[in-house]
Structure prediction request, 463 residues.
Amino acid sequence: MTYDPATFEPLRYHSATAAFRDGTDSPRDYLERCLATITEREPVVRAWVVLNEEGAREQADASTERWRRGEPLSPVDGMPIGIKDLLETRDMPTQMGSAAFAGNFPKRDNAAVWALRQAGAVILGKTVTTELGGPEPSPTTNPFDPRRTPGGSSSGSGAAVGARMVPAAIATQTGGSLMRPASFNGVWGLKPSQGAINRGERQTASMTTHGVHAGSAQDMWLVAIAIASRAGGDPGRPALHGPATPPPARVPGTIALIETEAWGRLEPSSLRAFEQVVAQVEAAGVTVLRRSDDAVVERFEQALVGATEVGSGILAWEHAWAFRDLAADRPDDFSDRVKRFFFDTATRLGAEGYEEALRTRADLTAAYALLGTRADAVLLPTSSGPAPIWSGDVPGEPPVRWPTGDPGFNFPSSLLGAPAVNVPLMAVDGLPFGLQVMGQPGTDARTVAIARWMGEDLEPVSM
Prediction:
């Protein structure tokens, strides 16, 4: 299936609700169309761990009655949503893509899932994640080319939205787990400011955030604000704040173009596509600051050197502590890749190395705050190109480190705790390739507004 951002029609929910009020459509009918697409595409895409079809139909019927009475609980009342299988759900198992959690069924809701139920959303099923949200590939395939990865670790969430199975799904990110699947699957993605959406039971890692994959900027925002307005932010953190309706498109005055250390790994066609978008931004009268002409941008670029290794070390250390006892008791339930890049990395880093990584992160955050005085937002690719083909490790050689894609363009937003939005504006060789807009922490609504301007007013680019 060839992807063209100018013609691809993802599922949207916000534009369907007017028909729910007048009775010409209903949440139940909308759900049935989603289920029909799942039946058609799931055998190849494999985006779901489990579906709760009976429960979803009951939820959709209740929503149908609320819309017909003119009493929806929220703009996302009746929206079919997938939940990444790292988050607990009271009516479905939470197995985290891991043999160590096979059959795990805590029968309680994550804070975000609870909030979505309160808003009337239809919790349709659990989407596939990589093992423990780590680097081991999942069985999910890319909806535009099954030979290719959908990204990780929110592989099922990105693929389910990209395959038009649902209008939105909950994803998470520690390194690049939300943004890279958004790029590879041609969907909108919001990775909020750190702590802006209550993670519930998932508080063990300092860079993990809940976020949203969606077919439209409007649905993306409506889902995120529905959660934050009910469940708040993480303990001690302010919640995502902004309007109850999607922030309108906003033209920035100044944008900083950030290359990161991954710039040299950007595929040539992807670079040309990105530069065409940048040319459109400049043609619209927006000032674009590059490292070659601005000392503050250059200082930040220098601070970013080594960001992937710093972020990987923090991630490994914190994840190793979360799962070390289980891994010691059941070592055969953990893949070699997770052992190598979680536990072995954490052992090499040690407590002293972890603290050094935290100091580096603090320095990077300070450099980024200074950049915030110069630019309304930051612009960079979301990935180093379209989804790569994953054909497995080479026998006799160490496991490939990043089989679900290069995270070099994703670690900055995770390290900085900054909001980031993927805009599905580009295609390379008939595959999605995302544009990333990153803001200062706490500026989520403004970042979404700038991203929305780019998605709605700039011409899509295909190479």
User: Anything to note?
Assistant: The longest strand covers residues 420-428. The longest helix spans residues 336-371. The CA atoms of residues 416 and 453 lie 24 Å apart. The two ends are 16 Å apart (CA to CA).
